[in-house]
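Weekly sync, protein design subgroup
Attendees: M.S., D.O., the rotation student, P.L. (late)

Item 1: inverse folding check
M.S. brought a backbone from last month's batch and wanted to see whether the design step gives back something sensible before we order anything. D.O. pointed out we never logged the input encoding, so this time it goes straight into the notes. Structure tokens as presented (296 positions):
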């Protein structure tokens, strides 16, 4: 396609958009909704992956003692754990230490601070293993101790997070597929209406020898325009919502390095969404034009 033909195609496309602004707005809105869901889905997958990596990099078992456990028994268990070659470090957390940690974590909520005292918080041992595969064995040893009431270790957390991530991935993919199909259907309908409104013009172009691709290009570029605009709007809205919620999320995910998001990641996500938008816009408009050309 020559430069002059390209300019004519862009001019025709823009004229079609201006003549039916409400149809264009409807197409952009459905595309924006689709890419808003896509953006949130990507954020959730990225964040959950970072959380899982964080816990996997810190193989740790927490053993909470029963209230009747004596300090001598706790010291003996701590010494036994320190002598295990699979254990990297052992840290004893007393009831007072647990209260300090609790107060630090909830310092902005006075009501929660007043409800908790050191007596109701259990003392514990925090044990880091050399390898994450050793967590199960160390956990079994701790559970066998009569003074240990509960054992929590990162493998359980990682497994739970992985299960949640897999479920969210399936839900997100299903939602994206459904919204993409709805977007394609609505785009096909809108482009089809535009084609029917220009039926006489298209017939004249065919009579004077215009190729099918010359007829298709303005409508395909229109579909691409709707797709890219919708992708940009959905992306900007999702980034705005994430920026607004980031202080709360950072407070909730204490110590887990998710924020701030890398500029490389943000640009890569935008590039991916633009490519997807081009595909959706091109495919839907191409099918709409193809159906008309087959009928005519």
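Designed sequence read out in the meeting:
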């Amino acid at each position: 396609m020559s430069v002059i033909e390209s300019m004519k195609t862009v001019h025709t496309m823009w004229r079609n958009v201006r003549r039916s602004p409400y149809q264009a707005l409807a197409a952009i809105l459905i595309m924006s909704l689709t890419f808003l869901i896509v953006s949130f889905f990507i954020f959730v997958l990225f964040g959950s992956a970072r959380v899982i990596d964080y816990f996997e990099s810190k193989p740790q078992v927490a053993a909470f003692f029963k209230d009747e456990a004596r300090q001598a028994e706790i010291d003996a268990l701590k010494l036994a754990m320190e002598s295990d070659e699979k254990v990297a470090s052992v840290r004893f957390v007393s009831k007072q230490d647990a209260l300090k940690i609790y107060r630090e974590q909830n310092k902005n909520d006075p009501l929660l601070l007043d409800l908790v005292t050191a007596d109701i918080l259990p003392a514990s041992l925090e044990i880091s293993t050399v390898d994450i595969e050793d967590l199960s064995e160390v956990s079994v040893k701790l559970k066998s101790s009569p003074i240990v009431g509960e054992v929590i270790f990162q493998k359980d957390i990682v497994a739970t997070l992985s299960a949640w991530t897999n479920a969210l991935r399936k839900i997100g993919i299903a939602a994206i597929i459904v919204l993409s199909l709805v977007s394609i259907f609505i785009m096909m309908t809108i482009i089809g209406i535009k084609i029917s409104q220009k039926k006489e013009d298209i017939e004249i172009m065919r009579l004077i020898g215009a190729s099918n691709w010359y007829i298709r290009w303005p409508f395909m570029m229109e579909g691409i325009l709707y797709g890219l605009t919708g992708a940009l709007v959905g992306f900007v809205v999702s980034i705005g919502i994430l920026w607004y919620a980031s202080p709360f999320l950072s407070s909730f995910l204490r110590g887990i390095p998710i924020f701030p998001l890398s500029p490389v990641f943000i640009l890569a996500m935008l590039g991916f969404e633009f490519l997807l938008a081009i595909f959706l816009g091109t495919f839907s408009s191409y099918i709409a034009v193809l159906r008309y050309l087959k009928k005519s």
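Discussion: The CA atoms of residues 40 and 238 lie 7 Å apart. The chain has two domains: 3-55+159-295, 60-130.
Action: P.L. to compare against the previous round before Friday.
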